Amino acid sequence: MEPVTLRTPRLELSLPTSDDAEAITAAAADPEVPRWTTLPSPYTLDHAHDFIARAATWTEEGTQLNWAIRCDGAWVGMIGLAHLDHGGDAEIGYWMAADARGRGFLTEAARAVIDYAFDELELARIEWRAVVGNIPSARAARTLGFRYEGMLRQALSDPRGRHDGWIAGLLRDDDRASVDWPVL
């Protein structure tokens, strides 16, 4: 696939570049990032450069799409679609720099990615997963219209071990209105 740039009123989403490496590394030093993601900890500049190179390869292969979220040209977060398959499914993932949280950037970026996934990639379903207890991620997913589907026991793993995970889904024809989740 060719890289795709998405734009919203405040944001530009595009393939991460080497210019983003220092910002990614600095943001990943926030203890909340490795707590809820699979990023290594401590996260080094080499990790960032490796991720940026792999993101380009995954895009070429069409197996995963990653966008750097930028506001006024500055990197503020990452969002992506993983596990793209030819059956019409993918998993959304995201994380934000600490100083970008609470400003609506995540949901704005996610709406653009979701629209692209359903309209251009013609996906049928987008899945969201998070370690149980990741309330900010769950609130964002709920706001985006994801429907809570349950808890998967020890289904999420990272270098720190196995974790129970929440799972939610969004279908192409869902109205994307926020609905109640039993865990929030």
Describe this protein's structure.
- This protein has 184 residues and is an alpha+beta fold.
- It has a single domain (6-171), classed as Gcn5-related N-acetyltransferase (GNAT) (Aminopeptidase, 3-Layer(aba) Sandwich), CATH 3.40.630.30.
- Helices cover 29% and strands 33% of the residues.
- It is built from 5 helices and 8 strands, in the order E-E-H-H-H-E-E-E-H-E-H-E-E.
- It has helices at residues 21-28, 32-36, 45-61, 105-119, 135-143, and strands at residues 6-7, 11-14, 65-71, 74-82, 89-96, 125-131, 147-158, 161-171.
- An 8-stranded mixed beta sheet has the order 1-2-3-4-5-6-8-7, with helices on both faces.
- Helix 1 (21-28) crosses helix 3 (45-61).
- The radius of gyration is 15 Å and the shape is globular.
- CATH architecture group name: 3-Layer(aba) Sandwich
CATH class group: Alpha Beta
Q: SSE string, helix = H, strand = E?
A: EEHHHEEEHEHEE
Number of helices: 5
CATH fold-level label: Aminopeptidase
**Assembly form of the protein:** single chain
How many strands, which pairing sense, and closed or not: the largest β-sheet? 8 strands, mixed
Q: Which helices and strands occur, and which strands form pairs?
A:
Blueprint: E1 6-7, E2 11-14, H1 21-28, H2 32-36, H3 45-61, E3 65-71, E4 74-82, E5 89-96, H4 105-119, E6 125-131, H5 135-143, E7 147-158, E8 161-171
Parallel strand pairs: 5-6
Antiparallel strand pairs: 1-2, 2-3, 3-4, 4-5, 6-8, 7-8
